[in-house]
Amino acid sequence: MKKWSIKSVFALVAFVMVSSVLMAGVSPVGTWDYKVLEAPYEYQKGELIVEKADSKYNVKFNINGTEKKAQNVKFSGSDLTFSTYVENEYITFKIKVSEKEMKGTLTYSEGNMAITALKKK
Predict the structure, then answer these.
(1) What's the number of domains the chain is made of?
(2) What are the backbone dihedrals phi and psi of residue 41, each rounded to the nearest 5 degrees, phi first?
(3) Inter-CA distances, 12 with 5, 19, 24, 67, Å
């Protein structure tokens, strides 16, 4: 009976460790190089900076040396959503985050475009 108890304890510890790793999920925090290949040339590439402060996420874009701040930022599970204005155009983003990349779509008045990003740091 003692051997079974020790095995049970080890199995329980292993289960808890694996569960905690899986529940931790991914984090969008960091600097990402993004691409929107369908966008006008000057907006096709840039940096996406995601920060977390006081349990809230903040998203900033660095496009050709100009920084823009996003609004309505939400992150749940692996889904990152936010919105911003570019040249008076309201744009919403829906992105799936993994450890090293992001993939999703942005929606604006004329339709949708694909966005991808690779984590820099």
Answers:
(1) 1
(2) -50, -45
(3) 10, 10, 18, 48
Q: Write the CATH number for 62.
A: 2.40.128.20
Concatenating the DSSP letter of every residue in 14-55 gives HHHHHHHHHHH-----EEEEEE-TTS-GGGSEEEEEEEEETT
- Containing structural domain, residue 112: 26-119
| Residue 17: inside a domain | no
User: pLDDT tens digits, residue range 20-54?
Assistant: 334 457 999 999 999 999 999 999 999 999 999 99
Does the global pTM surpass 0.70?
A: yes
CA torsion sign, 6 to 7 to 13 to 16? negative
Between CA 42 and CA 64 the distance in angstroms is 7
For the chain, the residue count is 121
> Does any domain span residue 69?
yes
